[in-house]
Specification:
The chain is α+β, with helices and mostly antiparallel strands. The chain contains eight helices and seven strands. About 20% of the residues are buried.
């Protein structure tokens, strides 16, 4: 069996003087030609026995041409590898820039490069362009929305003042008429006066809620922190809500479990939070129980006050519980139609709790009731 010329022994056979014979030189040139041809992907065609031997000069020329082709091929391969490394480096830079929200970087597209890498570079460049355009549009939209929100807040603040002035006058005149003619006026007139006053007070509350949410959104609401008695505050809140609870046949229960009474906080805003929560609980409960439980606990080395309002009302479905804290949103449209309200009470209460450094959470089950817990940090008043 004839062996492949590339597999023949590579070492030269030397004569006594150290030089190659003509036959040995021809054999070695033939082996080199076979190896170079195989490396370039073009195997050297075998010569027939009848063909005249190829001149040595022609063999050397073929060997030089094959070696030059191999060198050029390796140089082109190295150049492609260098361009590939450069593109991969640019791809990494663009991806890193995207992670930092910088959409200005681009990858160079090399027409003579691998199609897959070029396709990736083109796709990444297009994504950067789209993200840049989208970010510009979103920034413009955000700026427009912020400007509109500032204008809305200013408008609501001005209009709230304009509305409250005549409403306070209506409330004041109805009270004055009731005091002066309450003993002599006909019952139907007194009933009408009560309706007028009730409607004016309700409208005044709605306007106040709208003004509060505008101040909160504009970061203009400032807390008035001072010493307050927790027990005195909750007693006042319970006394305020009692008539409304009695009209719906609800039993009000107060449980004060906290050890500290005198604390520092904003009594007006804390009272507003509790009234919102108790009013909601009373509104969605009929002939049931509404409990205000005040408790004190320690968490992460700090003391906290929990004001839990527990009712036995209609409850809130789990999929609706995340939406009730959004402005102007209630559990669903039917709730608004049946029970009324603007949907601002819980939004304001949660924002106020957050301004105080705490939060407002809900646990509820449909048909069983709800528990809203307002948590604020307990800051003892050093002067007491």
């Amino acid at each position: 069996m004839t062996k492949d010329p590339a597999e023949q022994p590579r070492g030269p056979a030397l004569h006594g003087d150290g030089e190659l014979s003509d036959q040995e030189l021809d054999d070695r040139l033939q082996r080199l030609l076979a190896r170079v041809a195989a490396a370039t992907g073009a195997p050297d065609p075998p010569l027939s026995a009848a063909a005249p031997p190829e001149p040595r000069r022609q063999r050397l020329e073929r060997l030089e041409a094959a070696a030059a082709a191999l060198i050029d091929s390796e140089a082109a391969k190295r150049a492609r590898i260098e361009r590939t490394d450069q593109q991969f480096g640019e791809l990494v830079e663009v991806v890193t820039a995207l992670a930092s929200l910088d959409y200005s970087q681009r990858v160079t597209v090399d027409e003579g490069q691998d199609d897959a890498i070029n396709a990736l570079a083109i796709g990444l460049n297009m994504m950067c362009e789209e993200l840049a355009h989208a970010t510009t549009a979103l920034t413009r939209t955000r700026d427009d929305a912020m400007a509109a929100n500032r204008a809305k807040s200013a408008f609501l603040a001005n209009m709230s003042h304009e509305f409250r002035t005549p409403l306070n006058a209506i409330i004041g005149y109805t009270e004055l008429i009731n005091e002066e003619h309450g003993d002599t006026a006909a019952p139907e007139i007194l009933a009408d006066l009560r309706r007028i006053r009730g409607a004016a007070v309700h409208l005044l509350d709605l306007i106040q809620d709208t003004l509060d949410i505008s101040k909160i959104e504009a970061d203009k609401l400032i807390l008035d922190v001072r010493a307050l008695s927790v027990r005195a505050l909750v007693d006042d809140v319970i006394a305020t809500i009692t008539p409304s609870a009695q009209s719906r046949g609800n039993e009000l229960i107060l449980e004060c479990l906290q050890a500290s009474d005198m604390i520092r906080g904003d009594p007006t805003r804390l009272r507003q939070i509790l009234l919102n929560l108790l009013s909601n609980a009373n509104k969605f409960t009929t002939r049931g129980q509404v409990t205000l439980r005040v408790d004190e606990r320690e968490l992460s080395g700090a003391r906290w006050l929990d004001f839990a309002v527990i009712d036995t009302g209609i409850g809130i479905a789990p999929e609706k519980q995340h939406a009730i804290f959004e402005a102007f949103i209630q559990a669903d449209d039917s709730t608004t139609r049946v029970y009324g309200g603007t949907g601002l009470g819980l939004t304001i209460s949660r924002r106020l709790c957050e301004l105080m450094g705490g939060g407002l959470t809900v646990e509820s089950q449909v048909g069983v009731g709800s528990t809203f817990t307002a948590t604020i940090p307990l800051v003892l008043d050093a002067a007491w």
